[in-house]
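Milestone M4 deliverable, item 7.
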Amino acid sequence: LKPVASHRARGACSPAAAMLRAAALLAAGAVCGALAKSDGTCGYECTEDSQCGGCGSAGKCSCPDGVNASFSQISCSCVSAPADPPSSPAADVKDSIWPEEWIANVDAWCYPDFSGKTSVAQGKFFYNYRLGRTRAEWSPYITGKDALQIWVGGIAGEPKSTYYVKSGKICLKFAITDPGQAGKPYVGVEKPDWMEACKKAGYGRYIGREQVRLGEEDHWVDHWSCRLDYAAANQSITFQNWHSLGLGSVPKGLPLRVTGGNSAPDSRKGSPRLNSVWYKDFTVGEGVTKESDFNPPDFGGRLCIPVGDEEARSFFGHDVATEHAFSPAFHRRAHFLPHARASASDLRRARRPKPGPASSGGDFGQAMRKLNARLLRERGLRTQACHNFTLAQLHEMQRLLFDARTPELDRVYAQAGDTRRMAHDSVDALMQEQQRHASLQGETPHSHEAAVMRDGACHEMVMWYIHHLSESAREELKDHLVLPLLPEHYHEAPVTTTTASPELQRQVHRRYTEQVSCAICHVAPPTEAPVVEAQAAGEAALVV
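Output delivered:
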């Protein structure tokens, strides 16, 4: 978890750029799960005090940038602000400076976007500024599995900065750099005086004296905030810090809560809209961490998958950046990176322009029955009739198949102008189509158009499973996937008896025609002799 300003191992930048980079790292530090959080309703989004009951002894809505500020949703949250706080010690941003070495348990409360949905997680955080390293353990992480994150940041004489993420069987590693600076200099771990640096740059300010509750104890804290308006990107970022005054069981200066907000949340990059982290059960002082605490996973990182190279860029469809380490979407896709390479039989099937006779029928229904029979015979593959899926189940299976796709196969289809090529160039495009499907289903659940969209999606999902997944990815999915069987009825051109507009009918049928184009290739009328091609010895029976 990185809720702080970054120290540069080499290179220089303006204070504004440094603060923007720090805030970006903070906003990327969200994690999601299904656990309890500290501090009651503190940290909940709000617009007025009445929404903050349950936050300490004096809940109120705190908006450091003002409730009418642009993007107030990235900074307004519930705090506990009792009347007559202690006047001593005097507020001083220097008191927010972290110790150079400490360990704490952490809770996180996250709003990923502007929908109001929330998620939580718990873990443990290790910090050693002298070594330039951090460690975060999550139980569970955003993937539902325990996870480990280790940042080996650059220090004097050792400028390279590498981040390791281990979740389940997957381990990734990549350099932490600042792409906004010439030469992309390495970025080291957060400095202990990150909020003081923000104030000196002219962006930080004191908000007030409040309380943070951890367990049964209310701790007096000073609340500081730093806001950046990045005009070039039409983006605002706010990050806030609540440090202990040392009047209770937690020493002065330790962070009890840190909150980050980003007006341009992006699930693909793991950047949430509003995220709060609570630190508790501190162990502080020289020697509380060991150098071995920060050893990279999987034999010193040697078995971790390096990201940022051409192969990874091709697989993910973009350059892999720092913030992707915290993205649920990234981790879903990354799970299949070890299965990205197509086998020889996968490539032979991809280059075959027409199916063999064993997979062809004299009409649409017969061809689909033949293909379904082969799916039913596939060992370990679970199937279900298309019309038995709920919309949510259908969309989840679509997403799973899309995450498992092999770009190498799609390049074969694209270069050949083959109808099997992937219709969606990103998960966002797929989700937009799913949203249109859900909207139509909600308005007219039993309409002809809703049935056409459902059947088209089922046809496309089977095509993806067979023609876009590597052999190893198909095996990997069998424990997690229920594949729809192919609908045996072919929907003709739009009917005029439905209540849908003619334009909607045309759009739905046009997309359906694309989705069944692969299935149509399996129809070989009696007058047309099917193409007979010998299958290579040992090729999987599912090849169609």
